[in-house]
Amino acid sequence: MTELLQLALPPDLLSQIDMATLKLEPDSYLDDSGGRHYADLAATVEIRNVEFSLYILFEHKSYPDSFAHLQILNYMVQTWLRDSREAKSSRAGLPLRPVLPILFYHGPEREIPERFSEAMFSPELSSEILRYQPDFAVSVFNLSTLPDDSIAGPLDLQAALFAMKYARRDFSLLLRELNRLAQSGGVLLIHNPRFKLIELYLLHAAGLTQDELKQKIEQEVTDPVLQEDFMSTAQMLKMEGRQEGRQEGRQEGRLEEIRKVARNLEGTMSLEEIARVVELPVEELCSLLEDQAD
């Protein structure tokens, strides 16, 4: 997460954060409807000896949506309500803990407003009306418009960012970039557990048949170790069940695929991480696994 913040935050703000105080929060703050379109990550961190809530909202819809800012506002309000209850019970009083919101976007290419008012209200509203509406700035990390040569950091982070940027938009380009990273990092990258997560994500998100995956991997991946690893992972996912045009039994086949992937990953990562790989809310993933157990 530290490397991601170094890419996402402006330098003047980043220089004020004490990364040694960074602590991830175990809970998700998304409601049932938001969980279908977003993933969120919460943490606390100190800035100049003041504790902040740090909230990252990952938006990965396949179509443009401006309500991410509203989801962020919801998190901020829920955080402050919780803090106020704790303050009342302990008689600690104010002030509330500040919240630093970050919107991480990697959907279709588009510009994203930084201010809540610009994203949520009509530009025709007068300043006299807008002054009575809530407003705040969101630190936007727009991966869709970020130049490829600006993607930096550890190789597994670069691989993750390229996967999120191109898994649905340009799978061939993605494979070439991962091949380049693999040639730089060798087996240390390919056998990294985080890289296995990236493989699972991109092969699942690509929406290609088994034959299409095999063809693209053979065309674009020249590193023999990476090619073999991709082939074995693609086989495990049984992506042929995702062929376009398959009708009867298609949904159940996809759910069965997700169950198998989740079972293979159990014990190596948390349910929250698995849910992000298969792009399901944690509640739905748990329900799938429980149905199988029954």
Structural commentary:
Residues 3-184 form the Transposase (putative) YhgA-like domain. One of its GO terms (biological process) is DNA recombination. There is one protein chain. The chain has 294 residues and is an alpha/beta fold. Helix content is 51%, strand content 13%. It contains 13 helices and 5 strands. The protein has helices spanning 2-8, 11-14, 68-90, 116-120, 127-130, 155-166, 171-190, 193-205, 210-220, 224-237, 250-265, 271-278, 282-293; strands spanning 17-24, 38-47, 50-59, 99-105, 139-142. Strand 3 (50-59), helix 3 (68-90) and strand 4 (99-105) form a beta-alpha-beta unit. The two termini are 37 Å apart.
Question: What is the strand and helix layout of this fold?
Answer:
Elements: H1 2-8, H2 11-14, E1 17-24, E2 38-47, E3 50-59, H3 68-90, E4 99-105, H4 116-120, H5 127-130, E5 139-142, H6 155-166, H7 171-190, H8 193-205, H9 210-220, H10 224-237, H11 250-265, H12 271-278, H13 282-293
Parallel strand pairs: 3-4, 4-5
Antiparallel strand pairs: 1-2, 2-3
Helix pairs in contact: 6-7, 6-8, 7-9, 8-10, 9-10, 11-12, 11-13
Percent range of helical residues:
40-55%
How are strands sequenced across the largest beta sheet? 1-2-3-4-5
| Total number of strands | 5
- Average pLDDT for all residues: 80
- How large is the count of helical segments? 13
Shape label: globular
Write down the Rg.
21 Å
Question: Low-confidence spans: pLDDT under 50, at least 5 residues?
Answer: 239-250
Structural class: alpha/beta
N- to C-terminal distance: 37 Å
Tell me the major beta sheet. Answer: 5 strands, mixed
> What's the structural domain tally?
2
Strand content: 5-15%
N to C succession of SSEs: HHEEEHEHHEHHHHHHHH
Organism: Spirochaeta africana (strain ATCC 700263 / DSM 8902 / Z-7692)
Protein name: Transposase (putative) YhgA-like domain-containing protein
Domain Transposase (putative) YhgA-like: 3-184
InterPro entries: Rpn/YhgA-like_nuclease, Transposase_31
